[in-house]
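User:
Can I borrow your eye for a moment on a structure tokenisation matter? Would you put together a sequence-and-structure record for a protein of your own picking? Please set it down just below, with no commentary around it:
AI:
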Amino acid sequence: MKSRTKPRIPKSVQVGACRYSITDNAVEIDAAMRELDYSPKDADGLTDHGLCRIFIEPDQHISQKQDTTLHEVLHCVWRISDWTTKVPKDDPEEYIIKRMTAGLLDTMQRNPKLIAYLLYKGK
């Protein structure tokens, strides 16, 4: 039987026109937080849209890192979605899902390594 090796977190993800780098390297994250003069409280991940960077806290179980990675990618999809119109009060869920669907599908189709990483089921 072929053994499945744990996929590594992708080095980058394409979301719309932006290619975001992704790191879970503690040294790189510490340097970036000093550069940004930012000290997140209990954050498992952080996205810097200005420089197209995603930071994932390395000390997490694989399933939590996958969750955090998807969470941060969704922030990127949210950013490229059309939010120029007010969210209607009568059906906000439908509006939000409709706005994010094309960006999320495009992101999934462009990033097979991301999908492989997110779908990995470890023990």
